[in-house]
From TrEMBL, chain A:
Pathway(s) annotated for this protein in UniProt: Amino-acid biosynthesis; L-isoleucine biosynthesis; L-isoleucine from 2-oxobutanoate: step 1/4; Amino-acid biosynthesis; L-valine biosynthesis; L-valine from pyruvate: step 1/4
Catalyzed reactions: 2 pyruvate + H(+) = (2S)-2-acetolactate + CO2
Entry GO CC: acetolactate synthase complex
InterPro entries: Acetolactate_synth_lsu, AHAS_TPP, DHS-like_NAD/FAD-binding_dom, THDP-binding, Thiamin_PyroP_enz_cen_dom, Thiamin_PyroP_enz_TPP-bd_dom, TPP_enz, TPP_enzyme_TPP-bd
Gene Ontology biological-process entries: isoleucine biosynthetic process; L-valine biosynthetic process
Keyword flag Repeat: no
Protein name in UniProt: Acetolactate synthase
Automatic annotation (TrEMBL), chain B:
An annotated GO cellular component: cytosol
GO biological process entries: isoleucine biosynthetic process; L-valine biosynthetic process
Keyword field contains Transferase: yes
Protein name, per record: Acetolactate synthase small subunit
Catalyzed reactions: 2 pyruvate + H(+) = (2S)-2-acetolactate + CO2
Signal peptide: none
Pfam families in alphabetical order: ACT_AHAS_ss (PF22629), ALS_ss_C (PF10369)
CDD domains referenced in this protein's UniProt entry, alphabetically: ACT_AHAS
Residues of the ACT domain: 4-78
Pathway: Amino-acid biosynthesis; L-valine biosynthesis; L-valine from pyruvate: step 1/4; Amino-acid biosynthesis; L-isoleucine biosynthesis; L-isoleucine from 2-oxobutanoate: step 1/4
Name of the coding gene: ilvN
Length: 574, 163
């Protein structure tokens, strides 16, 4: 029997759980835990420069790897700084375990120094939370936290740890709990066979079907199965922003992604479909536009591991509660050997889709001419060429995020790492940092804008400390592009606080940290700069790319319209 | 439509705030709320009455079920059920009104449980409509204070909400 203090139990548990990196920032209430981490060398602690970055870094790792990310912060401001990152993970169903120091038990409720009721503060943005009430609970509670975070519909779990629970003088028996059972938590492991049969019957009979798949296929590790199923049926597929890469985008059957800034052909296909097969997607308002006008002729099959996602905004005709992977596999076995009822109808459907495709071909944006200011879209296209479409691409939020998602072609899941649900500016750079540390031999690039980057740029210091060689492509339009776009469209171009006065000299700023910065102004400078940036996998390089501030993201769905109501450029609409 | 949802949940600190928080967070409505431990001290039973169309009630039950602390729940209004609420009312009882209060209490099968020279404290149980009717009857006599427990309920017949 081994006796350990609460703090040592935490360190030991993280080792036993296989946690390699934990992101955090020390402070009074977490000091016993920090001391325990210091006295071991299996779990590597990464000192960030702001707790929000710790959560984003762990979140980025979780998105890229499919494993839970782990964060350690102190009480009060340490914990509240982590809140935005927790909410980011919650909205995108990302497994995260956040350990928060807390003031000593006897001080709780007294407004003690650095006390916050972090369980209360985070209640609406966690999958679950725990407060440790006795040190002996620590192994089991931590196991539950990791189990809850990673299973079912994943999400963040907060563990609140009063300082006296980790006191070095009090020791208790430690046994690593290999398994935990919770009577109130039994995530479904497979879908209802009758419902799946019904769905497959509809699929085989459909004349104008379309797959609409989301982040649930990525977190559910169901990409291969999905690809098989879609190939076997020969149906078109569109994904959500979160589902990008779950089906190879370079394949003919992939229409790109859908929704507010989704591709023309995706939105048109959705609107005219007679069957929508939604898997691991949640009919989010950025996808459906006006739900009362949403896909008027379609029957809807909706597969989701979370029953509360089904019929939340759009009623499903065939609801299936189950993990995407097992439901897809069952669908594959039911489809095998069978043929669709009306191959001619599907051929016609594809002809219609190809016509939509051809309609927009070459009209998406106008590339810059030599000597002119660059278009952000062509920067992303060049980035995709230089990295052969294989990089991990993280983004911040705004126009650059949409351009990155539209013009980088992802053939693999877990490669586009973006804050879709919460839309957190500042997410991209720390997320890239978290990924790069875990995948040092891969290219990891953060596509950002000068607005978002300044929200988390202090992490340059962390990258310096640990030698993290991420690449940063700053699409610098000297304004908050998406805000500006909305102001152009809805507020007669009154640019209220959407431009960035007094931008720093990014070149000097990056060099102050000892990194390489390259400023890019024109098309002929672009690819050489990108080649130079990606020449050394272990070097942080910052590309400050000056882009056209007047560019808008299109297509853009018309507010309150249907899926097919889109602005296609500054002068065209459907 | 009005629904009565009964929930068995872990008798843990914070569990109640998760349930209540869910209602405000998702813009659901709580009309009454009643909670106490069960015969199994590790479980609490919480009964909430809420109003919403089928879609809203479906979302409420799904989201409640998603809470880790919620072990089991039932929408009692889906079947035959018994619904009770307990109310204590202090009513003015002076002069002629003193007899009137007592008579009305008797009609409603309510009991006078405390007495002073100037008021009666009446205890009444029943469903919410009965309690409302009693309050209406008492209103002209001068209601001084009302304490209602909120609805508690249980299914009729063999149906049992347990683990």
């Amino acid at each position: 029997m081994e006796l350990l203090s609460g703090a040592d139990m935490i360190a030991r548990f993280l080792q036993d759980e296989g946690v390699e990196y934990i992101y955090g920032y020390p402070g009074g209430a977490a000091l016993h835990i920090y001391d325990a981490l210091f006295r071991q060398d299996k779990v590597k602690h990464i000192l960030v420069r702001h707790e929000q970055a710790a959560t984003h870094a762990a979140d980025g790792f979780a998105r890229a790897s499919g494993k839970p990310g782990c964060v350690l912060v102190t009480s009060g401001p340490g914990a509240t700084n982590a809140v935005t990152g927790i909410a980011t993970a919650y909205m995108d169903s990302i497994p995260l375990v956040v350990l928060c120091g807390q003031v000593m038990s006897h001080l709780i409720g007294d407004d003690a120094f650095q006390e916050t009721d972090i369980v209360g503060v985070t209640r609406p943005i966690v999958k679950h939370s725990f407060s440790i009430r006795h040190p002996s609970e620590i192994p089991e509670v931590l196991k539950k936290a990791f189990y809850l975070a990673a299973t079912g519909r994943p999400g963040p779990v907060v563990v609140d740890i009063p300082k006296d629970m980790t006191a070095p003088t009090e020791r208790y028996e430690y046994v690593y709990p290999k398994k935990v059972k919770m009577r109130s938590y039994n995530p479904v492991t497979r879908g209802h066979t009758g419902q799946i049969k019904k769905a497959v019957e509809l699929m085989l009979k459909a004349k104008r079907p379309v797959f609409y798949t989301g982040g649930g296929v990525v977190t559910g590790k169901a990409s291969e199965g999905l690809t098989d199923l879609v190939k076997q049926l020969g149906f078109p597929i569109t994904t959500t922003l979160m589902g990008i890469g779950a089906y190879p985008q370079s394949d003919q059957q992939c229409l790109g992604w859908l929704g507010m800034h989704g591709s023309y052909e995706s939105n048109m296909a959705m609107h005219h479909a007679d069957l929508i097969i939604a898997i691991g997607a949640r009919f989010d308002d950025r996808v459906t536009n006006n739900t009362s006008k949403f896909c008027p002729t379609a029957k809807i099959i909706h597969v989701d591991v979370d029953p509360s996602s089904i019929s939340k905004t759009v009623r499903a005709d065939v609801p299936i509660v189950g993990p995407s992977s097992s439901v897809i596999n069952e669908m594959i076995s039911l489809v095998q050997g069978k043929s669709i009822t009306s191959p001619e109808a599907l051929t016609d459907w594809w002809q219609q889709i190809d016509t939509w495709r051809a309609d927009r071909e070459g009209k998406l944006y106008e590339p810059s001419k030599p000597g002119e200011v660059l278009k952000p879209q062509e920067v992303v296209e060049a980035l995709c060429r230089v990295t052969r479409g294989e990089a991990y691409v993280t983004t911040d939020v705004g126009q650059h995020q949409m351009f990155a998602a539209q013009y980088y072609k992802f053939d693999k899941p877990n490669r586009l790492i973006t804050s879709g649900g919460l839309g957190t500016m500042g997410f991209g750079f720390p997320a890239a940092m978290g990924i790069k540390q875990n995948y040092p031999d891969d290219d990891v690039v953060c596509v950002t804008g000068e607005g978002s980057f300044q929200m988390m740029m202090q992490e340059l210091s962390t990258c310096k400390q640990y030698g993290v060689g991420v690449k940063i492509v700053n699409l610098n339009n000297a304004s908050l592009g998406m805000v500006r776009q909305w102001q152009d469209l809805n507020y007669k171009s009154r640019h209220a606080h959407s431009y960035m006065e007094s931008l720093p000299d990014f070149h000097m700023l990056i060099e102050a940290y000892g990194f390489t910065a390259i400023t890019v102004n024109t098309i002929d400078e672009l690819e050489p700069a990108l080649e130079r940036a990606f020449a050394d996998k272990h070097e942080l390089v910052f590309l400050d790319v000056k882009v056209d501030p007047f560019e808008h993201v299109y297509p853009m769905q018309v507010p309150l319209g249907s899926m097919r109501d889109m602005l296609l450029s500054k002068t065209e609409r459907t | 439509m009005r629904h009565i949802i009964s929930i068995l949940m872990e008798n843990e600190p914070g569990a109640l705030s998760r349930v209540v928080g869910l209602f405000s967070q998702r813009n659901f409505n709580i009309e009454t709320l009643n909670v106490a431990p069960t015969e199994d001290p590790s479980l609490s039973r919480l009964t909430v009455t809420t109003v919403g169309d089928d879609r809203v009630i479906e979302q409420i039950t799904k989201h409640l079920n998603k809470l880790i602390d919620v072990v089991k729940l039932v929408d009692l209004t889906e079947g035959n059920h018994i619904e009770r609420e307990l109310m204590l009312v202090k009513v003015k009882a002076l002069g002629a009104a003193r007899d009137e209060v007592k008579r009305t209490a008797d009609i409603f099968r309510a009991q006078v449980v405390d007495v002073t020279p100037s008021l009666y404290t009446v205890q009444i149980t029943g469903d919410a409509t009965k309690l409302d009717a009693f309050l209406n009857a008492m209103a002209p006599l001068g209601i001084l204070e009302v304490a209602r427990t909120g609805v508690s309920g249980i299914a009729r017949g063999d149906k049992v909400l347990s683990l």
